[in-house]
Amino acid sequence: METLNALLAGFAVALTPHNLLWCLVGCTLGTAVGVLPGVGPALTVALLLPATAKLDPTGALIMFAGIYYGGMFGGSTTSILLNTPGESASIVTAIEGNLMAKRGRAGPALATSAIGSFIAGTIATLLLTVMAPIVVEFALKFGPAEYFALMVLAFTTVSGVLGASALRGFTSLFLGLAIGLVGIDAISAQPRFTLGVAELLDGIDVVVVAVGLFAVGETLYVAAYEPRVTETMEKVRGSIWMTVEDWKRSWKPWLRGTAIGFPFGSIPAGGAEIPTFLSYAIEKKLSPHPEEFGKGAIEGVAGPEAANNASSTGSLVPLLTLGLPTSATAAIILAAFQQYGLQPGPQLFENSPQLVWGLIASLYIGNVMLLVLNLPLVGIWVKLLAIPRPLLYGGILVFATLGAYGLRQSWFDLFLLYLIGLLGFLMRRYDFPVAPVIVGLILGPLSEQQYRRALSISQGDMTVFVSHPISATLLALSLVVVFGPWVWRRLRS
Amino acid sequence: MKAGELLIGLGIAGLGLFLAAQTYALPDAPGYAHVGPRLFPGLIAAGVIACGVLLAREAASGGFRKLPEGERAPLDWRGFGWISAGALGHMALIGSIGFIAASSLLFFAAARGFGSTRPLRDAVVAVILAGVVFVVFTQALGLSLPSGLPPPKG
Description:
Number of strands of chain B: 0
Largest sheet of chain A: 2 strands, antiparallel
Helix content of chain A: over 70%
Number of helices of chain A: 22
Order of helices and strands of chain A: HHHHHHHHEEHHHHHHHHHHHHHH
Mean pLDDT of chain B: 87
Oligomer: heterodimer
């Protein structure tokens, strides 16, 4: 009942014309940028973060949520028509959806993906509404030791679980942690690693790092290794509507995908990649037409897309209730909160209920807007896919530099942007994952504060981390994530 | 033995050593907190060194594990150079010639880097895009960007 009242109050905030407008602007911008080939949701939110800088916090975060969701919807369109997934979680959609498009079924593929995203997003937002107050209640019992242990677990899962090599994942994490150290230490007010450069006292901004790695690094890589590759775009022929048969084959995968995606998103388990692959495997097993998989089966689009969206909504549970980002995109959203001096967590629910519940309510509204923006109007976005690559990357660079320069009008940020772009180029060339850098950069300073607070309370007693049952469990889980696979291989051979 | 990969591993280990030296030079003032500003950087420096050493070992014994398969085209320095020149030129010029002109040059250079054969089209699109972005971000979204015009007298 209390939750329902809070949610209704949230709708009262989200339904003001002002906030509805920002939600619509966010959804539209997010879709437009997310649809651009090679631009995933993480880069979409990073590129558009500066656009929200001068708004009031509630309006800005509502717009930002729209950008986030819009980036996901737009990314699916690109995956289906171009087979260039903007992030690892849309790889499956790119495979099966692109095959459908090749067989002239682009319309139903786009429709099942958009409707599936809508259904998964709405159910997941409902679950978020119900779960958030429960987790907040639980999180109030957390002290600094528990928070620190939780962050360590997030570090290990983001770096160790995803990607081909855990070693490269952890290298990325430590690079992010090292970048996060630069600046004034929050507790002792001492400058660290600033090399005497005044511009570094405030630390290195997450926009510069995210845009440098994703946009500048990627542009350098493509220009250096694939400057003249041209992608073939599948045309949307015939009706975009699904047949009765398509509906029959889609609704169960949507629901199953949601059921798989949401829990994976809401625990620190390494993001949306695993649930999409899991959903694909399950749909393949349960489908009455397993022979169509690998040739463009509609279940193979419906399930994973639902899982992807449910998972990204699920990741808002730890983000809003604990301040814990579990993916690169979530880490950038956390940075958006920090831009206003807000720290997500139980206190935010107590102190700014209007903002939190307004944000959650706007997720329901944004989902409806996106369904309308992406189904009847899909033709507009498809035109964006046809932008020639020289113009596309030129535009990406203009927006990237705008984001970095807009922070404080300093050429130094543009210099950092290029340096981090070079780092991103090397990381792309040698297959280092980027997400751990972003998560390390954002969570590193927070985890250091919790660590020092915990030791300050325990008067320097290090056993505080293992004598509290919750933090001991979380740290033990982290050890399993780091050393489990290695021990497992040893035991088997 | 993979030279590039070995260099990456050693470079990361070197970065870790640099971080460790910088950490060591920090004054440690534990005070209340019992842990001063040195412990965490020290741990991170150790982590960076360990990763660098392990990567170098992989590079020396057959290369990084599980890299994506498939041949990579040889590096095209022309593309890389145009993008770099565009980004650094933009950095150097934006303060004096303003956002619209600097961004247009960046856009134009990037288009060259991707082998565009239509310079006129690129230039027109560059100026229009930079102009629209300038107006939208300064007027509607309240960002301040240098116009490149001399400041009004008075």
